[in-house]
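Readers of this paper often ask what the protein records in our data store actually look like. Below, we set out a record of this kind in full and without editing:
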Amino acid sequence: MIYAKTSKGFRSGGQQLRATSATTAIPFQPEVIFAHEARLKGEFLDHRLRVNLAGYYTITKDIQRSLTVGFPNGLTSTLLNNAGKYRVFGLEGEVTAQVADDLQLGFNGAIAKPKYLRYDEVANRTNLSGDRRVERVQEVPEYQFATWAEYQHEFVFGAFKIRGDYSWTSAYALQSDYASLGNPLSVTIDPSNGRTVIDNIIAASTSPKQGGLGARTSISILDNRLELAIFGRNLTDNRKPVGAVSVPGIGFVSLQLREPRTFGGSATYRF
């Protein structure tokens, strides 16, 4: 099956209910998105090979971004900002192969090329396009992939299944909006490393390239009514950051780390 699709959607605008001054009380406008996509779905080799491929191009106007404004006195305010115009295009693919009656292998990957075509700062509507501090696109890795293998076999007493998977993501920005670019603290030099406060925030709010390994095994008995399973997540105990909230005006970053290595079990009964 081959198809192409184009669509338009929007998110409504509103008022700055948490504004602290007339300057930051400017209402935010609707966000409008135009999305175009072409996709191929196919099964080959007597349905033992499944291939899904897609390409897309998306333009978003008046994109809404949540913004935490910090002040030298330590107070903060959260605003919604129309950050300008943003585009992203890329490719996605998934391949699943039944290489044997009991063994299935899979792979998926994606490439994304995001960019702000225009970036407006909320306080004075200044076009900041080209400023490296704001042109980073939030939570859009350029490259990512995942691969897995699954073995399943029917025995006299029931069905046995074991699966292992690995996923990898390139480095990406956890935060892209910096409210206090004009604040003196943004260009203050940190004596510990010679970098500015805003440079430290950018470094701290970037998720480095990282991977995750997981596994699960289960057995189903009683005509598949009862399933007993054990699993392990993040087996390499990767604790790199996957989320961040920053307040550039006061030089503060709060990080959310990947969950630690976890083991567990489950029992499921289907009545």
User: Anything to note?
Assistant: The CA atoms of residues 17 and 25 lie 8 Å apart.
